[in-house]
Here is the input.
Amino acid sequence: MRSRVTRLLSFSEPVVLPNYRMYRSENFLKRKYLQIFWVSFFWIMNLLQSIIDLVSFDTEDQMQPISITNIISTSLLSLAIIATLIRHKKACSRVRAIVELLLLFTVVVSAGLMTSRIANYGELSHRLIMSLASLFFLQTYSLATTNLAHRVAFLIIHGIYIAVFNRDLLGAGSRNIHEIVFLIIVVMVMLMLCVMAYSTARFDRFAYLQIYDNNQKNIIWKQIVDSLPQGAAIIQKDNTNRIKFNNPAFKEIFGNADGQQRTQFIDEALKNVFHRNNSKDKQGGHLNDRNSGQIFQVNNKSYFIS
Here is the structure.
C-alpha cells in the first residue's frame, strides 16, 4: 500500500489520480455546509476584532486603516465564497478549485492584516501571545480545505508575514533571549502544523486507495455475475423478499411482471429451492438436477439464489 503513494503524495498508478480528483470533488460538495459555517464564523470573528480595534481608545491612528481594510476585504471575500458554495449543486473539479483559491486568498489577506496589527504591539509578550493565537485561529482554515498545497503555502506565507512585520526583533543589536524564544516557538509551531498537514494528506490517500480497491472488486464481481447465463440475485431475508441485486438473466425471468407479481414469484421460488435442498439432504445428496435452483445464506439479512 505504501509503495502506491509517493513521497510527493502522487499515485504510482496513473489511472487512480482522475478517480481521486472526482472523489475529492464529491467530498468537497458534501462538506459545503461545514465550509459555509467556517466562512461565516471566520467573517464574524474578523469583524468583531476589527470593530473592537476601531472603537478602542488605545488603538493608534496607523492601525485604523488596517482594521477598515480588514473589514472590507474579509466581507467581500466571505460573501463571494458563501454565494459560490450555495450555488454549488454538483461535484465539479473546476468549482472546487475556484472555491479553494478564494479560501486561500481570504486567509492570506486576513493573516497579513492581522500580523501587521499584532506587530504594532509594544510588549514582546503581547506579540508572542497574539501571534500564537492568530496561528491557531487561522489554522481552523484546515476545516474548510483538504488541499495540502494550499495549507503548506499558507503556512509559508504566514511565516513570511511574521518575519517581515517583526523584523525589528531580528536585528543583531536588539536580539535577546526573549526574542530568540519568540522566534523559536513560532518556527516550531509552524513546522509542527506542516508535518500534521502532510500526514493528514498522506493518510487520506491511503484511505482512498482502500475505497478504490473495494470498488474495483465490486465492479469485477458484478461483471462476472452479469455475464452468467443463469439468473442470480441477492434477496433480503425478511417478509418483503426485496431484491438487493440481480443480473440480466434473472430480470428476464419476470418479463413485464409488476411489483406484486414479482414478490409472489420470489416467494414461490424460495419455497421450491428450500424444498429441493431439504429433499436432497434427506436422500443423501442423490438429487442431481443441474437445472434445480440453489440458495445460499450470504449473511443474517440476505440470500443468494440462482
Summary: Residues 282-292 have pLDDT under 50 and may be disordered.
